[in-house]
Specification:
The chain has 33 helices and no strands.
Length: 577
């Protein structure tokens, strides 16, 4: 449903995922003059590194290590290659080997390199401890800045922030923190400044596109992304972001179409199985397909996986499971506040918990009243939801009417709008909205049927309410619906249908109240006949008499024989009494 539709899509390329592994790239064949045989030539390490072919670099360096070839800083290059290939544990082991082998001459910065590996493995305490062993450097400052952020240590973050310089690396590190703290505009400003200094730093375009994506400017994100995709058309991160923008602008099918370029460029069998991010996003693009298999292992790797699994549980009507996943999440952006509110509302309505409903109402109010969201569609939906939970339906309608044109065929909107109109006594508008709901599951719910029947009765169409009841099987819910029809019809003066309903109720449960209702409704039909309001429907009076005759009550004789019969005789109304 609407607040719930939060298919997140674009995840960042986080360390610790299979995304950064196995980046085997096709290497260009050496150019050889025609007719001349190519000589077997040992590949060059710098060529591998320049092409980001870390598998090739590792293969070469491991070969040299086994052959005991002398290459300056061989272990350092090997550890570097392992790190960039996503083999963080092997990188740590190789740095340890370098420390042992080059006891006196080793690089004093090895601890901070190891700290980067621990950070990538999400072992933030170990990363911090290891970094402290290294001499001060820009890399050490950046690393401690990021571990402080991961551990929510604001004072440590401030201390490291003050140490940052204007170097490109430090500014990129600062921009990343701004992004992770959802300060997308501040991150964009840093990236744009850096882009002015170096127009050919193509990756900056991807970072700026990520920020615009997060700010909901999907078309702008696509435009900026293009300059990078022209240079690197098969970049997984960039193609994925393009697909996510298409998902937000169009639909899942359009998004999946964009990912095909990766499968075509891939030499492996199924690229989607190898990359966590693509696997995750396919679940979103396919509307939750395979969510229960794919998303749980990704909860600590891709932040959006948790939100999308929550949405999956809401869609499958498992609010308790959704609650377990989201209860400890500290929301940072409107979408997270909204999703948490939806879960609390769903659970509160399911269990009758006032505390959960109050929490949901506060979360919705927080978003809907915020300066940045109050005039957005989700912001207005939030205010409507807040007032709905407070049962202030006139206020609900102020917000829902302002966004109604955007939800012409949306079942969730029509459901909420219909019930709000009915609660505010605008039954004609309510009936129209409820009849637009297409979802069969929704249309079979007691809540829907009871509101629709009330709208029929209040709009002067009690026969439609009766037909709705007549189509149901006999259950507790149909009994309750009959109760509602009986009382609402009585209140509105539709005594014939009220009498029929009270008659069935009395046969199902011989409660004296039902007899009193039936008797009152029968007198109501008779009264309309006396006033000449039944017109050509005198057969309704006959049916009411027949209904009374079946009752086992001493008052029947008095009503039928002493009141209705003499009147019928006097007014020449043909009744079979």
């Amino acid at each position: 449903g609407s607040p719930g539709r939060s298919g997140e899509g674009a995840g960042m390329n986080r360390p610790g995922t299979s995304l950064s592994k196995q980046k085997q790239k096709q290497r260009a064949a050496p150019k050889v003059a025609p007719g001349k045989k190519a000589e077997a030539q040992k590949p060059d390490l710098q060529d591998f590194l320049k092409n980001c072919d870390y598998v090739g670099a590792i293969t070469l360096l491991e070969f040299e290590r086994k052959a005991r070839e002398e290459r300056p800083h061989l272990l350092m290059w090997l550890a570097f290659s392992y790190f960039h290939n996503g083999d963080y544990k092997k990188a740590i082991d190789t740095y340890d080997d370098a420390l042992k082998k080059e006891k006196k001459e080793h690089d004093p910065h090895i601890p901070v390199y190891k700290a980067c590996c621990y950070y990538a493995l999400q072992q933030y305490t170990e990363a911090e401890e290891e970094a402290q062993k290294a001499p001060d450097s820009e890399l050490k400052t950046r690393l401690l800045f990021h571990t402080a952020h991961k551990k929510n240590d604001e004072s440590a973050m401030m201390a490291q922030h003050q140490q940052l310089t204007d170097s490109r690396e430090d500014q990129l590190g600062l921009a990343a923190i701004q992004y992770l703290r959802s300060h997308f505009q501040e991150a964009t400003d840093i990236y744009k400044r850096l882009l002015v200094d170096d127009r050919e730093h193509w990756a900056l375009n991807v970072y700026i596109a990520f920020c615009y994506y997060k700010l909901d400017y999907y078309d702008v994100a696509l435009e900026i992304l293009n300059s990078y995709l022209v240079q690197y058309p098969n970049s997984i991160t960039a193609v994925n972001l393009k697909a996510c923008s298409h998902y937000q602008l169009y639909n899942g099918k359009a998004a999946e179409q964009e990912l095909r370029v990766l499968q075509q460029a891939s030499s492996s069998g199924n690229i989607f199985q190898e990359h966590d991010l693509l696997q995750h996003n396919l679940v979103v693009f396919r509307n939750g397909e395979n969510a229960i298999q794919v998303l749980p292992p990704l909860l600590d790797i891709i932040p959006e996986a948790r939100l999308n699994l929550v949405i999956y549980h809401l869609r499958t009507d498992e609010p308790q499971e959704a609650f377990k996943l989201i209860k400890d999440l500290e929301p940072a952006v409107p979408r997270e506040y909204i999703l948490k509110g939806v879960v609390f509302a769903a659970l509160g309505q399911r269990t009758g918990s006032r505390d959960h409903l109050k929490m949901a109402q506060q979360l919705f109010q927080l978003v809907g009243a915020s300066a940045s969201e109050c005039d957005t569609i989700p912001g207005r939906q939030c205010m409507a939801s807040c007032f709905f939970l407070l049962r202030q339906f006139e206020d609900v309608l102020v917000y829902l009417k302002s966004i109604k044109p955007y939800f012409a065929n949306d079942d969730d909107f029509n459901w909420n709008y219909g019930i709000a109109c009915a609660s505010a006594s605008d039954y004609a508008e309510a009936k129209e909205a409820l009849l637009q709901v297409q979802n069969d599951k929704y249309r079979a719910e007691f809540c829907y049927l009871s509101w629709l029947c009330r709208c029929y009765v209040m709009s002067g169409e009690p026969s439609l309410a009766w037909e709705t009841y007549a189509r149901l099987e006999t259950t507790n819910e149909s009994f309750n619906l009959l109760h509602l029809i009986a009382n609402d019809c009585y209140k509105m003066g539709h005594f014939y249908y009220s009498c029929k309903a009270f008659d069935v109720l009395e046969r199902l449960d011989p409660d004296p109240e039902f007899w009193e209702g039936k008797r009152g409704a029968a007198i109501g039909v008779f009264q309309r006949a006396v006033a000449g309001k039944l017109g050509g429907e005198m057969d309704k009076l006959q049916e009411v008499v027949n209904i009374l005759r079946t009752a086992n009550n001493h008052q029947v004789d008095q009503i039928v024989n002493r009141v209705i019969k003499p009147w019928a005789k006097e007014n020449r109304v043909k009744l079979d009494i």
